[in-house]
Amino acid sequence: MPDLALPWPDAALEGRSGGTAISFASRSPFALSNVGNGPEESPETDGLGQLYLPPGASEENPVPAVVILHGASGVQSVRELTYARQFAARGVAALVIDVFGARRDRATGFVNRLLQITEAMFLADAYAGLKHLAARPEIDAGRIALIGFSYGGMVATYAAYAQVAERYAPEGQRFAAHVAFYAPCIAEFQDSRATGAPLLMLYGGRDAIVDPERCARVAEQLEEGGTTVETIVYPEAVHQWDGRFAGERQIGRNLADCRFVVESDGTVRDRWLWLPMSSVFYRRVILGLCTDEEGYLIGRNDEVRAQANEALGSFLAPILLGGES
After folding, report:
1. What domains, with CATH codes, occur in the chain?
2. Which of 17, 177, 232, 275 is deepest in the core (most CB within 10 A)?
3. What is the pLDDT of residues 56-95, one digit of tens each?
4. How confident is the model at residue 322 (pLDDT cuts 50, 70, 90)?
């Protein structure tokens, strides 16, 4: 019987095998406005992932599932793979998507990946993963949630907008729920219509990459668009409380000062210069101007992780398990 109650996830599962490498048909649009415009603007790509199936999952016993999106550092065993193993151990299938791994020919290295592998590509793999899972007989197609961490959490939020879902899944597949772990709220949609699937936003009170006021505004807009949003803030937490590094350390470039607007036609623009995020050149210019070189703090915090896991299980249980947990 599926169960998302604590203790969850179990750190003892870190590093264990159990997933199966899979590939699925996806695409690589640079921008949201490129989606659906043919192979030149949205070339075919083989999406890559690790699929974790619970024991007993079958056509006679289809199980709920989650699609998991990594952050800017890529797939981590301590985070994405641990959650996937624990979901499977609790009776929920998990597909960890490796967006960067599927596009190694496009970019390598941290900075180049972020310039050339875009949110639109993350979204393409997320919806392609949803389509793949929904077609598998051992998966309950109506109970598939999307979970993202940091960069992937930002994408999990975008996927809750109807405008996005209609572009990537015009045939009607939709996620049953969305979860964003410590996701920067740097974009607002002119078209605030939502898919109706609920969203859970989790972030730390000391996370310099997350602007609480803008996250509140995004939540309000999505609620006006037709969905419910639950926000939980952990006052003492910094970024990536479930990552590999114990103790706090400064990393990266901070995106908190970036401001983007997603127009109704899918064009993403910088709010200050109104430049379109339509090419690697423009993306480099825009991000170069709005990011802060001082970076932000990350730090593993097992107490916060346990609290967030409890919140995650409580949020997902009535959606994926029909209240069983």
Report:
1. 11-319 (3.40.50.1820)
2. 177
3. 899 999 999 999 999 998 999 999 999 999 999 889 999 9
4. confident
* Distances from the Cα of 319 to the Cα of 175, 285, 306, 323, angstroms: 11, 41, 20, 7
- Kindly indicate the confidence band of residue 325, based on its pLDDT and cuts at 50, 70 and 90: very low
Nearest to 260 by CA among 12, 38, 14, 32: 32
Pairing verdict, β 93-97 and 63-69: parallel
Nearest-10 crossing angle of helices 119-134, 151-158: 70
Average the pLDDT over 175-188 and give the result.
97
Encoded tokens for 74: 């890529």
CA dihedral 313, 183, 36, 163 (to 10 degrees): 80
- Sequence-distant contacts of 105-108: CB under 8 A, at least 24 apart: 106/28
pLDDT band at 109 (very low <50, low <70, confident <90, very high): confident
End-to-end CA distance of the chain: 9
Q: How far apart are CA 41 and CA 167, in angstroms?
A: 14
